[in-house]
Amino acid sequence: MTYLAVSALSHIGAVRDHHEDSLVVGPWTLCATVTESPQTLVFPLGTPLIVAVADGLGGHAGGEVASALVARQLAQLGPLLDGEDRLREALDACNRDVFAAAARDPALTAMGTTVAGVVVTADRVLAFNVGDSRVYAVGPEGVRQLSTDDRLGDDDLPTSIVTQALGGSDELAAIDPHLISSPLAADTSYLICTDGLTDPLPAGLLEEVLGQHQDGRAVFELWKAAVEAGGPDNITIAFVRANADSA
Which structural domain range is residue 231 located in? Predict the structure, then answer.
């Protein structure tokens, strides 16, 4: 394996009138900006590469501010995230920064955001999340959710109430990120998304699409399916795959 390819898309959905999702792919960020065609970026394998989504909390002021702050902070810190301790420190710093920004502006009181993503090094993948945005591994054994949903309810009866986020309350609250480390493998890819993708999709459709496509086409087809299912929320998707020399 010599490089990583990341295909990503971010869209407002079919119902909302504003966009509160943000995306970070290495040094590149996309904050509250609509795209309708997947963009693919290629990176050499080696230096830690972060790919993550952040979903501003609905019902709180400044969700787009919180998600953009976290995306930009992670883009800056990304090359330094060479292990679990560094990643925990970075997420903790993001959490404190969201609270600090809210404290400076009463209009942003209790703003917050979820975050989920992967950090890919030369030989490992570190998946992480805080909140209900998700990370999936896609490999020979099928599609597996690596993230842990921090929210009330379940897939059958979900709610919009998250039990953990970056920010999201009046006073500083500690976070306990979910982290899973695994070896980097050429036959395993990673899907990172906000709940605007997963909540409206019929059971099994995610697996069906990823069984047919594992590139930018997968991102497009998943977005299309979420919109056709009602598109009730903002939708942000990133698909990360390692490529061999012959790919």
Answer: 3-243
Mention every residue, 6+ apart, whose C-beta is less than 8 A from residue 158. 151, 195, 199
- Cα–Cα nearest to 60, from 17, 111, 97: 111
Task: Note the pLDDT tens digit of each residue in 1-55.
Answer: 789 999 999 999 999 999 999 999 999 999 989 998 999 999 999 999 999 999 9
CATH number of the structural domain spanning residue 139 = 3.60.40.10
Torsion angle defined by CA atoms of residues 14, 108, 28 and 87, in that order, rounded to the nearest 10 degrees: -110
**Number of structural domains found in the chain:** 1
CA–CA gap between residue 188 and residue 166 (Å, rounded): 29
DSSP character string of 116-148: EEEEE-SSEEEEEEESS-EEEEEETTEEEE-S-
Which pLDDT tens digit goes with each residue over 143-201?
A: 999 999 999 976 666 667 899 999 999 999 999 999 999 999 999 999 999 999 999 99
| CA–CA separation, 22 and 118 (whole Å) | 15
Whether the pTM exceeds 0.85: the reply is: yes
Q: Are 118 and 190 in contact (CB under 8 A)?
A: yes
The Cβ of residue 64 has, within 10 Å, a number of other Cβ atoms equal to 20
